[in-house]
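Type II secretion system protein E (GspE)
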Amino acid sequence: MALGAGEFADVAVDPRRGDPRSADFIEQFSSFLQSNSFLDELAIRRAQRAQKQSGERFDLVIMRLGLLSDRHMAKALSAYCGLPLVSENAFPERALFSEEIDAAFLKQSGVLPLADKGEMIELAVADPFNRDGVAAIAYLLGRPIELCIAAFGDIEKAIGKLYGSNGAKPEIDAGSSASAAEASDADVQRLEDMASEAPVIRLVQDLIVRAANEQASDIHIEPREDCVRVRIRLDGILHTIETLPINVREALGSRVKIMARLNIAERRLPQDGRIKVNVRGREIDLRVSTMPTLWGESIVLRLLDRSSVELDFPKLGFSGGSYDDLRQLLDQPNGIILVTGPTGSGKTTTLYTALSLLNSAERKVFTVEDPIEYQLPGVNQIQVQPKIGLNFATALRSILRQDPDIIMVGEIRDLETAQIAIQASLTGHLVLSTVHTNSAAATLTRLLDMGVEKYLLASTVKGVLAQRLVRKLCSNCSQPSPETPRVLRWLRSTGADPIALMNGQEPRLHRAVGCPSCRQTGFSGRTTIYELLTMSEEIRDTISIGNSEGEIERVSMAQGMTTMLQAGLLKALKGETTVEEVMRVARFDTCLNSDTEPTISTAP
């Protein structure tokens, strides 16, 4: 489209383009973007809401939200306005009209002269709605303008390179290792440019949506020597879902960092951030962790989907006499109740479920967490901030002056936190917390090792719940297993009475097979296996005389505690999981007779 200098004001903007803030333009451009697969309906509605709130131009709102990169917006505007699209390859090798036009003006206007065609000037514009900028160029050069569209970032980079003002510095080699020196401004710009490309944006979105839809707990982005491996953790097990070319490594990492508001130039130190996304109406929190490795930054995104968590003990897998004992512990007016297990064993969900039962208008409930994983209505939740001195101990000490009834401490990591928790329980508060140990009995010895006095431990701790998560058998494809008699003998060897524990239910051991509904794994979802140590006079005496973890466990079992292994075998005999799953997560060295061989046939 050629535009004359004298008549520019009348014909500068094609009638089809309109005012980018007008309702007509927004409606027409939205329809165009959706019908040509630039954006889906959900993204368009999001952009329209944001435009109403801010009053910005609709096209700029779309880019600000990250729905389209500047290059994809240029492609969309080119098609919408009927103007040719040009890339960096079409840019001139030397500056044109450098004496007539100031570089700062070109950059501000987002325009770049491409070619002097004698009677007219070919001009690249990022914004076809910029009447004044194009009119000024036509006036200064005294010739008609032929418009093309290019991405703003490409135009800005070319102006800096060709006209010298604000020129770009040489880029760092894309293959630089994570231990390279601090990134230059040009390198930061390069990373931002790569991260703003629509294919990278869509790749990250697709990975998050896929992980959310499959109810994965984590996304692992791992650079290798010649590729980038992407894995997701489903029901506690990692599965590879993508093997990407190595050249997307930096762009992929930079995109995640931008979303998490991390420093994209810092590739030498670990960083932590947070992303909030909406996947089909579900608000999902992603905790981002980056770690420099030999082949680049390893990135892990942990998905926290509040809508997928059911804070209900029976649905989590709690039942029977141990569950009744747990409910009685939670009804105590004071004392300490501890939950133990490795990372990813469901401790936080168990604590949140307990708080959801205890929380009421008559009670004041506080939590101290690192991080706050889910928001609990009516609960005062505190995020620790170590950088400013707000750690577990400091927060807990201050909470005691807030007249609390129930306190949940994310983790007892040191003696100071343990002592304040004990003080809180002695002054009439119920304290819930976690400790990282392998069993319920080991939790008590761990606190003693921290320096807690025996008499304080014995008088304040009411109970310890140790738990693990095992995968549940897929109800569509699991099949009966012939190993039921062997497992019954094994369970009896641990000192348990299968008939009593099964409550008359017929044992029905099953094995995993695999079908499309469970992604050929044979499993779908997870359930909890656990052991609950309830403090008694005998256990207090055992602690007071300094007996070992093993002795504490033997006393607990003698008083009727169902161990984690026994609980797991019971769930296997009920057809909920497999023996292999139980063996994968549970200890079986402390409660088996030495002549019992735990050999179970492996499922295909």
